[in-house]
Amino acid sequence: MSIPIKASLERVPGGMMLVPLLVGAIINTAHEGTGDFFGSFTGALFSGALTILAVFYVCMGATIELKTTPYILKKGGALLITKAGVAVVAGVVMGQFLDEAPVDGGVFAGISTLAVVAALNDTNGGLYMALMSQFGRQRDAAAYSLMSLESGPFLTMLTLGVAGLSAFPWQTMLGAILPLLIGMVLGNLDPQMRKFLGAAVPVCIPFFGFALGSGIDLAAVWTAGLLGIGLGLFVLVVSGTTLFFTDRLVGGSGLAGLAAATTAGNATAVPALVAAANPAYKEAAEKATILVAAAVVVTSLLVPAITLAYHRRLERQGALDVREGETDGSVKPEGDSESGADGPSGEQDARIAQTREQAEGAAEPR
Asked: Cα 142 to chain center, whole Å?
């Protein structure tokens, strides 16, 4: 008897992260001391989020290649700087009205600068690369090798410091990025180490998801539901708009910018990591984790649809090859004998549908 557990999890946007997180939250809500009750290795599964994340970031770092082409540096660097810049602006603006603590009443109860900055600062790499690869934009997919420097709490800590909120000692800032740097060194010195460590990245995801969930009370999830959806829409609109025009400015079509307007699943770990580094954020961390998790789901569902719709529009205009400087063999000018004046052919429609399915399957955290 075979049960398709993995395939079922992958049908859920961010499922490899969010489903274990939900399981952990259910167990914690039903019996808060489950991990302490069992102790030993079982207890470590409930409380070992930081350790697992440290391993995760070493393995993630190993996948980042320093040998990049000028195009990858230009595209990846532009998107990385833009997304980080948007988070800084949001952090500075919100920092003028909020301190480290979340809003404690009203419609926006639970929202915090930490939640917004964490949701903005990290891109869903699996979804971005799936979309770019299916559109024949291999160079744009490769640009994520630079964008993956977003991973981890470093940028969020830096943004919060720039926003004038509680700063972090330099040792803590270095410690936040050191595992990623160690992985980068190992992966670039030895391709075999890159392959070995890189294979562990997806394996770590459900384990730290479960550990993070075991610290969440589901009673707080209900109150944060609509607010989390709103945060996801905010990330999509604000970062999607700025990234779209940035992509156009560096010679792209805007597709890569739209595909990067997501929140990564492992961004849900950032609030807890920030709170561990600075207790001033402890009050905001639990609700921020829930809000960021909601943003992961919202952006993972909407970004593929929006990107695919824009891709289809560009196909009709015959503008893809001219803008991207690449030829994928599928773009034909409007009025072409195969595609016709009314838009893509049936074969192109089938390919777009297949792209949607594969992109949704890849819409899980890095």
From this structure: 16
